[in-house]
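so my prof wants the structure for this chain in the tokens format not the other one, which i didnt know existed until like an hour ago. anyway here's the sequence
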Amino acid sequence: MSPNGLQPLASAPAQQAAADSAQKTAQMAKLQKAAQDFEAILINSLWGSMKEGSLSSDDDLQGSSNSLEQFGMQMVSGALAKAGGLGIAKMIVHALQAKVNAAVQGGKV
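here's what i got, hopefully its the right format
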């Protein structure tokens, strides 16, 4: 304790390290979200291609019913990607993690 009875504040390097850690965590969360969104779009596109190539005839699905089906596919794709999906988001995060760390330490973010 200091003579006035107050505890000294954390040193400047410790404060900077804490700020860098918080910024790194925020940037990694953004990266994770972007990677999951990308994977969801990819999964949705794959399912759309499979549906188009299917042998069944969906002539009765037109207009709003078709739009509702597309919306449902998007929601399921997003949920699947968030739950781990095909692992593409995880690979993207792994590949870009070092760049995020370097950008935070270099003050570029």
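also thought this was worth mentioning. Residues 34 and 61 are 32 Å apart (CA to CA).
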